Amino acid sequence: MKIKEMNEALQWLRDKYAVKADGTLTATAPDFIGAGAELKLADGTVAKLLPWRQERRFVELKKLVDGKTLEDVSTLRFAAMSAEKSLEKLLYRELDLCAFLGESPIVSVFAVTNGKTANAIVKLADDKSCSIECSAALPAGTGEMDRHEIIARRGVACDRTVDTQVPQSSIYQFTRDGEKRYTDTDTELFGFSADEITLIRAAFEVLQHPELAEIWNEADAKLTEITRAALESEKNGKPAIFAEEK
Fold first, then answer.
1. Which of 174, 191, 194, 220 has an alpha carbon within 20 to 30 A of 234's alpha carbon?
2. What domains appear along the chain, each with residue ranges and CATH number?
């Protein structure tokens, strides 16, 4: 992860949009199951980042829910597979997306694991159900694959096109030197991976709206608890139960 270049891009955005708040991205500890970087604000506050909430596809899915294009959402079906990220990291993100896109806190979760794979069933406070499939067992060098589907009484939405098994790149170039792919989709940030771009965008969102720091820190603490409880639920033989937020 190019932390120095990411901070330069963050400061460029801050200057461009005249944002007064200042902060610096720092890499998180290797054993941290959340995002790969956090934001240290000028006042010393450290904000945990939930960068997927700034990812365009999830923003658009949430708009479909908020705008009632999808009426009476009942089920969320998620899958995420990676060669580089740990099972805990994958599950942490998918659990947050359940609550974020489902617009309701998690009240119970039960997971069955097998090595680097896990299947989880999640219940939200408003009775929506979520199924999550995670695998950290992809062969080395394989790109990350995921799929997120929202099923409602009227309408179904997905972040992947129909029957797509792997994420598509923006541009493919086939030359005598082999295949090259270009995934730049941000109109202001170039030369970064998709994960790096979402981290920069998430950090910039916190600088624009400092109140997010407390909200995301609370969400991180809850997600860490839920993720660990989910992975322990199989040993206990029963779902992990969480009190509904007031």
1. 220
2. 3-161+195-241 (3.30.360.10)
